[in-house]
């Protein structure tokens, strides 16, 4: 339905469950995709699966590497139309026990790298008068979650950041939006026992966990020409577990 | 001076899609040439690239006309 033929996209955290699904969906819609992550083998495997894609290993906790990633993607793809800032980390813990470095590292990787990537990507997008900046945040950035003060702060920060740059860049044909996944099937949720899974699904009106493809479909929509009038928004994809 | 002016003028015409004869020394980017605040940032970045000069934020704020840009660049470029 949404045609991304000829578009060039960068997906960070592409070797994760959601990132991989996003990369596949963009590719299936016709985009040429640059895959970024820290695990070279997993990147190579995904690249082999997606003809025309390129693998760009990058450690987003390193500011210089992060600053350089957009340039590498633009060079490899011949431009960049779509940035999907998907990479993120967690260092969960209750406030009283949270170490400085756990707070700072989560803010730095999740929010800091998004800032650096968006700053670098917007330069070329402004020149071309076209661009899509899409940040994968989280429902907890809006609702909060005990044990995830650092993570929730980083995700809420991404939302505020996105709203600000959406206003700065709208006149240049660039949109910036967030997608906030709820509970999505992942290796982490696979590890839960049946009782835990049942408790979670009870809190979700759709009565199931989300799939990575549910998030990927939202990315494809926001990346499309049809979504050109949607900017500064947070699209919640959570089966109704939070209606905001 | 004139070489710098010509290169500045070329950048301004390209970025703002401005009429060549309107890009004169005392033309204000915003008031006379139709630039918005984002355009002025883009122009400053383009000047930095073209002339290999760094334009700090406080200096960039004072560059409001074509002549301001030429003066800063002439005084600071290599």
UniProtKB/TrEMBL annotation, chain B:
Annotated Gene Ontology cellular components are: cytosol; membrane
Pfam families for the chain: PP-binding
- One term of GO molecular function: acyl carrier activity
The known PTMs are summarized as:
4'-phosphopantetheine is transferred from CoA to a specific serine of apo-ACP by acpS.
Q: Where are the transmembrane segments?
A: none
Q: Which UniProt keywords apply?
A: Cytoplasm, Fatty acid biosynthesis, Fatty acid metabolism, Lipid biosynthesis, Lipid metabolism, Phosphopantetheine, Phosphoprotein
Gene3D superfamilies found in the cross-reference section: ACP-like
Matching PROSITE patterns, A to Z?
Answer: CARRIER, PHOSPHOPANTETHEINE
Residue list for modification O-(pantetheine 4'-phosphoryl)serine = 37
Which parts of the sequence belong to the Carrier domain?
2-77
Q: Which PANTHER family does the protein's record reference?
A: ACYL CARRIER PROTEIN (PTHR20863), CARRIER DOMAIN-CONTAINING PROTEIN (PTHR20863:SF76)
Q: What is this protein called?
A: Acyl carrier protein
């Amino acid at each position: 339905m949404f045609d991304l033929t000829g578009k060039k996209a960068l997906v960070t955290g592409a070797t994760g469950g959601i990132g991989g699904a996003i990369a596949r969906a963009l590719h299936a819609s016709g985009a040429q995709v640059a895959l970024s992550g820290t695990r070279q083998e997993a990147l190579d495997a995904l690249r082999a699966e997606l003809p025309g894609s390129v693998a760009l290993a990058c450690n987003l906790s390193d500011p210089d590497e992060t600053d350089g990633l957009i340039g590498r993607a633009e060079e490899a793809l011949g431009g960049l139309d779509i940035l999907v800032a998907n990479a993120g980390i967690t260092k969960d813990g209750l406030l009283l026990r949270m170490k400085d470095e756990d707070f700072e590292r989560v803010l730095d990787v999740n929010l800091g790298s998004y800032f650096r990537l968006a700053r670098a990507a917007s330069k070329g997008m402004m020149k071309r008068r076209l661009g899509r900046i899409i940040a994968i945040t989280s429902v907890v950035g809006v609702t909060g979650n005990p044990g995830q003060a650092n993570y929730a702060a980083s995700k809420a920060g991404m939302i505020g950041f996105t709203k600000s740059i959406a206003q700065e860049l709208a006149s240049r044909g660039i949109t910036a939006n967030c997608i906030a996944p709820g509970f999505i099937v992942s290796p982490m949720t696979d590890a839960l026992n049946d009782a835990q899974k049942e408790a979670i699904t009870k809190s979700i009106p759709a009565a199931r966990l989300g799939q990575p493809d549910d998030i990927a479909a939202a990315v494809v929509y926001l990346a499309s020409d049809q979504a050109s009038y949607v900017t500064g928004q947070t699209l919640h994809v959570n089966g109704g577990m939070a209606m905001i | 001076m004139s070489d710098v002016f010509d290169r500045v003028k070329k950048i301004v015409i390209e970025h703002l899609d401005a009429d060549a004869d309107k890009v004169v020394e005392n033309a204000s980017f915003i008031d006379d040439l139709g630039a918005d605040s984002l355009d002025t940032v883009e122009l400053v970045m383009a000047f930095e690239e073209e002339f290999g000069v760094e334009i700090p934020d406080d200096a960039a704020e004072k560059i409001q006309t074509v002549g301001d840009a030429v003066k800063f660049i002439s005084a600071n470029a290599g």
